[in-house]
Specification:
Blueprint: H1 20-23, H2 36-39, H3 52-55, H4 62-69, H5 87-92, H6 98-109, H7 116-122, H8 135-143, H9 150-171, H10 175-187, H11 197-212, H12 217-226, H13 228-233, H14 247-256, H15 260-263, H16 286-295, E1 299-303, E2 310-316, E3 326-328, E4 331-333, H17 344-355, H18 357-371, H19 381-392, H20 399-408, H21 411-415, H22 424-434, H23 455-459, H24 485-500, H25 513-518, H26 526-536, H27 548-551, H28 559-572, H29 594-607
Antiparallel strand pairs: 1-2, 3-4
Length: 615
């Protein structure tokens, strides 16, 4: 089993290797790749982006756009929905107008209930050993584990979280929750391949991120600050006076609250920072970072050091804390120690940061980029409207629900399309959802020496393996970052592999397109088969332009692509003509039969069209 060696989290993959086209089997030799951003310079396999005003015609249906932007794509028949109806059918049943349907869908998604399609695959499954463990149990049983098979045992929570994330994105009814879980995990990123983090990651997801998704940012932030995963990832677990570590202090200001995009003023004196609309310092400077590092001294983890318990819980150490006065963004924090009052410094700092206009604008800008499109700034009207709600409700238990509602029910959401592209996990998950994949995603065994099934090793080459982002920024959102041919081709390869054979421990381990086609009540001719599968994967069947439904008038894929698909089926199926029966054995629906393989290819031609890569 390969071990991913840790390196500085400040570097973005500065290793060269056989990624990109070479890893996909395209071209010869090794292509040196440093950062994914550099792959943008390679020839793009994506369609050129056409500005909204130049596209003309109708947008795709709102139902389609909702599942593409606020979920991981629509499923044609979804057992997670009442009556197992398809996602688009379910959305369209929720009201008499798009406005009513979107409001009803959003209300339902923000109050998630049971999730049997996920729970039945995880709860009681002996291969999933860590989701029910407490933080203390993970700390002792995995981080402190000192027996045989140490590497898989210490990594098991991390590896199980990767499988659980794929399970949820493919099978969960509560798609908005999974999209937002991804957003917040990237906002509060920790690298699962690092020491300690790998052993407690399940707790970080279950106890900190997920409870806060539809709740309050201030509450979630404090949970993040005090969790062992973040404490060790950003080096605050042993932060002590007189030599404070500034790593987490910097990221608390730069990434988690105020943001450096518009609110970092460098090395100027604090008194020279301009004021914002509330009359407060508009942002922070280097002096504020150093003062924050002093304030964070003593806030750590019970790791058995200095006579502390060895539990992995949050622990404040008076002796490690800087008792002196600190001034951060013009606010003074000074509690004479020792004593519990010193902990009030952190409470007051987090309160102030979460009320600050800069935090509201930064967070709402990031949410707008994730949920709507890339073309926003902190000054965009929709971002300002959301920031007003964020700031005025900073201490309310449903704060984030109110913010999401402003963004998702906006005109900007309803009129923006194809401003973003699917990232690798969105490509893989949406392809599996379009195929109604029934797979269970899990490790190879419940034993201490567990490992991965084959699809994992291709999946990891896409550049977006869950919880494997080294820098604290998390995986990028901007479309340009993911348009390089490396991530795209490896995403295609992963989806293709998983459609044909997941090599998992649970049957079935492939998509039986042949039996489904035979039971669809259609003529087994090239035209009929192509029309059926185009329509099933949310395209309208149309003889002259088969792909016009998903893009709408003015967005249609060239009709020639439909003709190419018919020609593919005619050739691979040995049919005498486009409306003639296939000449191969259509009663052989085995995994490796010619009929099955032909339909695998057809499905992938449709599901991986460049037009389906937009969101």
């Amino acid at each position: 089993m390969d071990k991913i060696l840790p390196s500085s989290r400040r570097r973005f993959l500065h290793q060269s290797g056989a990624l990109g086209l070479a890893a996909a089997g395209i071209g010869a030799g090794l292509i040196p790749i440093t950062t994914l951003a550099q792959q943008v310079r390679l020839t793009s396999l994506w369609p050129a982006r056409v500005p909204d005003e130049q596209r003309g015609g109708a947008l795709p249906s709102l139902a389609f756009r909702v599942y593409a932007k606020l979920g991981y794509g629509a499923r044609p028949d979804n057992p997670a929905n009442p009556g197992s109806v398809g996602d688009l059918q379910w959305f369209n049943s929720l009201g008499g107008s798009d406005t009513a349907r979107l409001q009803a869908w959003l209300t339902e998604q923000m109050s998630p209930g049971l999730d049997p399609e996920v729970d039945n695959r995880v709860n009681g499954n002996p291969v999933y050993r860590t989701p029910s463990l407490s933080l203390n149990q993970m700390w002792l049983q995995h981080y402190r584990y000192d027996g045989p098979n140490g590497w898989p045992m210490r990594n098991r929570p991390y590896w199980e979280m990767q499988m659980l994330t794929l399970t949820r994105s493919v099978h969960s009814r509560w798609q908005l929750r999974e999209v937002l879980a991804d957003f917040w995990h990237n906002h509060f990123n920790v690298d699962g391949s690092e020491d300690v983090v790998r052993s407690v990651l399940t707790s970080y997801d279950r106890d900190v991120i997920r409870p806060g998704i539809f709740g309050n940012f201030r509450t979630m932030l404090e949970g993040v600050v005090k969790h062992a995963a973040m404490m060790f990832y950003l080096d605050n677990a042993r932060n002590s006076t007189p030599n404070p570590n500034e790593n987490y202090a910097r990221e608390l200001l730069e990434l988690h609250t105020l943001g450096a995009v518009e609110n970092y003023y460098g090395y100027i004196p604090p008194g020279q920072v301009p004021t914002n609309v509330d009359g407060e310092p508009a942002g922070y400077v280097e002096a504020d970072v150093l003062e924050t590092a002093r304030l964070l001294t003593g806030f750590g983890i019970a790791d058995g050091d200095d006579g502390a318990p060895d539990t992995g819980d949050f622990l404040f150490r008076d002796a490690w804390h800087d008792d002196g006065s600190k001034t951060i963004l013009g606010q003074t924090y000074s509690y004479a120690g020792p004593g519990v009052n010193e902990e009030q410094e952190l409470t007051d700092l987090l309160d102030y940061l979460c009320q600050h206009r800069g935090t509201a604008e930064y967070l709402c800008w990031k949410l707008a980029v994730r949920l709507i499109g890339d073309g926003f700034t902190a000054q965009s009207p929709i971002v300002q409207a959301a920031a007003d709600v964020f700031q005025s409700n900073w201490d309310q238990p449903d704060q984030l629900q109110q913010v999401y509602s402003v963004l998702i029910l906006s005109n900007e959401f309803r009129t923006t399309w194809a401003d973003k592209v699917k990232r690798p996990n969105e490509i893989v998950s949406s392809t599996l959802r379009a195929a109604n994949a029934p797979y269970d995603f899990e490790l190879t065994s419940a034993g201490d020496d567990t490992g991965f099934y084959g699809f994992y090793w291709t999946w990891r080459l896409t550049g977006q393996l869950p919880f494997n982002c080294e820098p604290p920024t998390g995986y990028a959102e901007d479309a340009s970052f993911w348009k390089g041919s490396g991530p795209l081709v490896m995403s295609w390869r992963t989806a293709s592999l998983m459609i044909r054979d997941t090599d998992s421990g649970s049957a079935p381990n492939y998509i039986d397109f042949a039996s489904h086609t035979n039971g669809a009540g259609i003529a087994l001719t090239p035209n009929a088969i192509v029309d059926y599968w185009l329509d099933r994967i949310q395209f309208r069947t149309n003889r002259k332009g088969r792909l016009d439904r998903i893009q709408g008038v003015g967005h249609a894929t060239a009709a020639g692509k439909g003709a190419e698909m018919v020609a593919y089926v005619r050739t691979q199926g040995n049919a005498a003509g486009d409306d003639q029966p296939l000449g191969i054995n259509t009663s052989d629906t085995g995994q490796f039969s010619s009929y099955q393989q032909m339909l695998n290819g057809l499905f992938l031609l449709i599901a991986l069209l460049p037009e389906r890569m937009s969101r």
